Amino acid sequence: xxxxxxxxxxxATEGAIVQINCTYxxxxxxxxxxxxxxxxxxxTFLSYNVLDGLEEKGRFSSFLSRSKGYSYLLxxxxxxxxxxxxLCAAMDSNYQLIWGAGTKLIIKP
Amino acid sequence: xxxxTQSSRYLVKRTGEKVFLECVQDMDHENMFWYRQDPxxxxxxxxxxxxxxxxxxxxxxxxxxxxxxxxxxxSLILESASTNQTSMYLCASSSTGTGDLGANVLTFGAGSRLxxx
Lengths: 109, 117
Known about the structure:
A: five-stranded antiparallel sheet, B: three-stranded antiparallel sheet
């Protein structure tokens, strides 16, 4: 079957670094997405990886290892506004998205 | 600013009522999707559409139907609402393509929180 696993909740301190992991199993693979969702709001696109390696975009970076079925989202210099849920989604061979349940990130001062 | 607009943010309906959830996008996207989001679960795809008057069942279509009469509008219909359909409903759109990143990025609406009593 197809599935995505990510931690339910994480806590970090303002100014620190946090890594949110995601493992996936899909029938075929056409990329891995990360979305951010603030409470009560729409998910918004953060990053996309289809090749192995690290993609950096400002304070946020995303890493992919296709052989391990593994990705992580790295958030640096955490700010209070980064408190949100982070959704991992893998695209299968039919270009359908398989979604994780999301990781709620709590930032403490 | 491009966007996906869902007509109702909050609805309260009674069991057995017919419910319409409307979604409109202004990005000329070919693809539109309806998801439901429940605590502890990933987004679950209800229905999607790749073209006008076209619809495909997602993972959990039972109890739902959709309508896409115009490219910009995708409606979700609950023919007879039940309490287990209490949920957050998210509409999303994307452009067509396979190798192009931009084609597969979803733009979501703000969501419609439905409570069925």
